Amino acid sequence: MKRPSPDNAPVQKTALLLSGGGARAAYQVGVLKAISEWYPRVHPSPFSIYCGTSAGALNATSLACHSSCFRLGVKKLTWLWSNLSTEDVFRSSLSGIVHHLGRQGFARMQAQYHCAPPFGLLDNRPLRDLLRRVLNFNKIDHQILSGHLHGLAVTASNYQTSKSVTFFQGQPEIEQWTRSRAIGIKSQITTEHLLASSAIPIVFPASQIGHSYYGDGSVHQIAPLRPALKLGAEKVLIIDLAPKQTSREPLIAHAPGLATLGGHLMDAIFADTLSADLEHLDRMNTLVGSLDKKAAEKLALRQVDAFQLSPSSPFEPLVERYYCHMPIAVRSLMRFLGISPIDDAAITSYLLFEPKYINHLIDMGYQDAQNLRSDLIGFLGIEN
């Protein structure tokens, strides 16, 4: 396998785009684990740009901290997810849930001049503690200065302005951007940015950055590819978390309940905009291909290749199998809210942070990547 000089960044800027999906993001780790095995043990990352949203932002940031050694970064991320449990992400004991909900209710019964904390059914403060322990954000600057990292982007949703906000850290030439519903802000990525990007609406409390409150980055993100393109990507590998659609229809149609509607809403938030953005990218590539080089440069257009990898199997059967491993207090809360482990498995798949379920997703991602090995090797330009 041909190895580029470790002192030089990749000639072509390749971006890794990781979408959101809560516990489903363990699938991305399996894919990256397979890809890392196709490179030598000590080898810089094939990706110079990392873009993440929601749980994908946590994975992207962790990998960006180890851009100079791809295998090491993936190994650390795999270890983190393999040893993850619900209690590491949110308080899942009966006393913890009751205390959190009681505190939320009491805060909202006080006088109007009292500033109530952001609402969330679950207390995700354990996740803040975990991120502070396992991530060294100072390494991001080091990777940028060494030339192994061109840029890192974390996307969140601003609840005050209803805009998609991408916080990015990278090379000096990367400029901020402003669109009608999206902006890019140069910033030092911290734990709060990751908590904001992964704060699933209603489930987890919003995170305050500056004077604004932010939530899950997928909510207002109508162009998921934009951060990668703004950071200068010429190729984008997308690890999506929306399983491939099947043509099988249920024999009996049940009227959707609140939890079912919530599951469909979350699936739409995390998946639908990416499909539309990829279609737009295809049209732009066709346009660029029809222009001569000078005309394309004058219009500031360039060809951007994209490779999308999605789970080959749905998550719902796995949720039904591993639902019993979820803490009983969390299951009781979900039952109280009318969430069924069978009928509403879609929404449960985002919150099932249990080792057996997570490791199954890692194995699924690993196998899917191996099945597409030749295609991925060709896209990444790995030479034997």
Automatic annotation (TrEMBL):
Active site annotation, chain numbering: S54, D216
PNPLA domain boundaries: 16-229
Top-level division of the source organism's lineage: Bacteria
Gene Ontology terms, MF aspect: hydrolase activity
Placement of sequence motif GXSXG: 52-56
Transmembrane stretches, start-end: none
PROSITE patterns tied to this protein: PNPLA
GO terms, biological process: lipid catabolic process
Annotated keywords: Hydrolase, Lipid degradation, Lipid metabolism
CDD domains per record: Pat_hypo_Ecoli_Z1214_like
Keyword Transferase among UniProt keywords: no
Listed PANTHER family: BLR7027 PROTEIN, NEUROPATHY TARGET ESTERASE/SWISS CHEESE D.MELANOGASTER
Protein name: Patatin
Organismal lineage: Bacteria, Pseudomonadati, Pseudomonadota, Gammaproteobacteria, Vibrionales
